[in-house]
Every structure is written in structure tokens, then in C-alpha cells.
Design brief:
It is a single chain. The protein has one helix and 28 strands. With 257 residues, the protein is mainly beta. The longest helix is centred in the N-terminal third of the chain and has 9 residues, at 74-82.
């Protein structure tokens, strides 16, 4: 376990060679937290199988290249999720105020593991706080009504083997397209999204889709497709006191349950 917590700027420089595993990069994974008012990452943390990386700034920008406007570039996040050594690592970005994904190279961030089908990691994007495993109910939603998680280009897409969770706390979500094992979007405010596609790879539970806004509106600009050869997937859309607008787009559930 590694906890690196800075009151101001935390920087992981290229070549830092941070490894949190029991028996090398394909062994059982560990936990690493990189936390600060500002966090700037220029290399990956080798987590091993089932490892977990928590990035905890106030604001974070994921950009297409290693430029000054980006805290964490697209290639590093892809590599962190894919983990070329055979097992993907889970990545949680939990910001205090905002997460921005800039326009992606070729319009796609590919976190799927090319060397082992279905072994890429999970991705958690949240506004709030988390001390350990954000994927296991350790996340506490926070922020303000002005907080947000957004794509700069809404036609962009993120591909994952594992599950995707986005929770903007008291803020809003305005994102593009996703393919993942399961997809869950939650916020107190408005939620906007593109195409949502789930699949069996990358997990052992049902590839469900859940979009829940406790006090805002839900709008979808693409198809929702939940498919499984093992389960009977569920699609849940809940806007609380708001409205739901999917336009002319389809909701397709294809399963065996």
C-alpha cells in the first residue's frame, strides 16, 4: 500500500517506477493513493491483478497529450487501465470539484487489454471523497451544484473491459459514449450522455446500465444497449423530480435471464 498525500502539488515524474504488487507486475495487486490539491502524473503505477489506483485532486483534466493544461494524459490512462503485463488496474479519479476530459486523440480512449481479452481494469470518476476502494461503497458524494464531470467533445468514446462508474455528487454530468462491462451514472443535477453499451467481458456480474439523477434531468443522444450471453441485464433510468429525454434513440436489452 502506498499513500502519497500533498497539501499542494503532487507530481509523479516519468520514470518514477512505482510498483504496488506482491510478486511483480502480474501478481496480486495492491493499493496506491496519489492525493493533493493538484496532482500531475507523468508515469503509471504498476498495480498487478486487482490493484487499485486512487487519484484525489480538487480539479483534474485528462488530456490527449502531456501538455501543461492536462494533469493526466490519455496514453497514460489507457496504459494504466490496460496494464500491458497482462492484467488491468482499476483507476479511480475522485476530485473535490471537477473532472474534464479534453478532446481525445482519434476520438477514443481505449482502456481494453489487447493482450488478454476482458482483463482491462475498471474506471471510477467521482466528485466527493474516497479513502480506499471506491468501487466497494467507500465513495462519499460531494462537491456543489457547480461541480461537474464533462467531456469537451461529446462524440468522443471510452472503451473498457471492466465496469464504468461516474458519480458527480451534487454536480452535473455531460459526457459522450461508453462501452464497458457495466455502466452507472449518478448525480444530483442534470445528466447527459451519448451511446451506452455493456457486455459480458471484464466482469462476473450482470452488465447493467443505471442512470440516476436525484434532482435533475436525464438526456441521452445515443442508443442504450445492454447485452449478455449469461445474464438478463437491467436498464434503469431514474430522474427523480426531473424529466427524461432520449429522443428517437433505442433501448435494447438482450440477455438470457
Amino acid at each position: 500500500t502506498v499513500h502519497a498525500v500533498a497539501g499542494q502539488l503532487l507530481t509523479l515524474e516519468q520514470g518514477a517506477n512505482t510498483t504496488v504488487t506482491n510478486t511483480g507486475s502480474t501478481g496480486k495487486g495492491g493499493f496506491a493513493e496519489l492525493s493533493g490539491h493538484d496532482v500531475s502524473l507523468h508515469d503509471i503505477v504498476s498495480l498487478g491483478h486487482g490493484g487499485h489506483l486512487l487519484i484525489d485532486p480538487v480539479d483534474l483534466t485528462i488530456g490527449p497529450g502531456a501538455d501543461s493544461s492536462s494533469n493526466f494524459n490519455q496514453q497514460l490512462l489507457e496504459t494504466q487501465l490496460q496494464n500491458a503485463n497482462g492484467y488491468g488496474g482499476d483507476v479511480a479519479v475522485v476530485a473535490g470539484n471537477s473532472i474534464t476530459i479534453q478532446s481525445l486523440t482519434n476520438g477514443v480512449l481505449d482502456g481494453t487489454n489487447q493482450s488478454g481479452a476482458g482483463t482491462g481494469g475498471r474506471l471510477f470518476l467521482g466528485i466527493g471523497s474516497c479513502t480506499s476502494d471506491c468501487f466497494s461503497n467507500d465513495f462519499v458524494p460531494g462537491g456543489t451544484s457547480a461541480s461537474f464531470i464533462k467531456f469537451d467533445t461529446l462524440t468522443d468514446e471510452i472503451l473498457l473491459d471492466g465496469a464504468l462508474t461516474i458519480d458527480a455528487g451534487q454536480g452535473t454530468i455531460d459526457v459522450g459514449n461508453f462501452q464497458a462491462h457495466a455502466i452507472a451514472l449518478a448525480a444530483d443535477g442534470d445528466i447527459g450522455f451519448g451511446t451506452l453499451v455493456t457486455h459480458d467481458s471484464g466482469g462476473t456480474d450482470s452488465p447493467d446500465v443505471s442512470v440516476v439523477s436525484s434532482g435533475g434531468n436525464i438526456s441521452g443522444s445515443g442508443q442504450i444497449l445492454a447485452s449478455s450471453a449469461v445474464f438478463g441485464p437491467h436498464v434503469r433510468l431514474d430522474s427523480g423530480q426531473g424529466s427524461i429525454d432520449l429522443g428517437t434513440n433505442d433501448i435494447v436489452v438482450a440477455g438470457t435471464g
